[in-house]
From TrEMBL:
It comes from Paramecium octaurelia. This is Ubiquitin-like domain-containing protein. Residues 4-77 form the Ubiquitin-like domain. It comes from the Eukaryota. PANTHER family: OS03G0364000 PROTEIN, UBIQUITIN-LIKE DOMAIN-CONTAINING PROTEIN. PROSITE patterns: UBIQUITIN_2 (PS50053). InterPro entries: Ubiquitin-like_dom.
Amino acid sequence: MEPLKIYLRIKRENRVFFFECSLLDPVEILKRKLLPYYKQEIQDMRIYFGDRLLDDKANLQDQAVPNDSCLILKLRKGMSGEWDE
């Protein structure tokens, strides 16, 4: 049986990306899908569901991310270690 597919939006500033994912996909998969659009390494990306930072290794189902959610992408700013607001 194929894992349940869900649709997610990932937003950063004035850009919104739409992805089809499996509930069993780890968050790291979402970051890999964003690599062609940003010149950042995966460890320099954070994805939030509301105020909650999602764990890269945990899957979407375990982190209770529902279908049609809008996630927020934040990037590390240079070498300062600071993150987008």
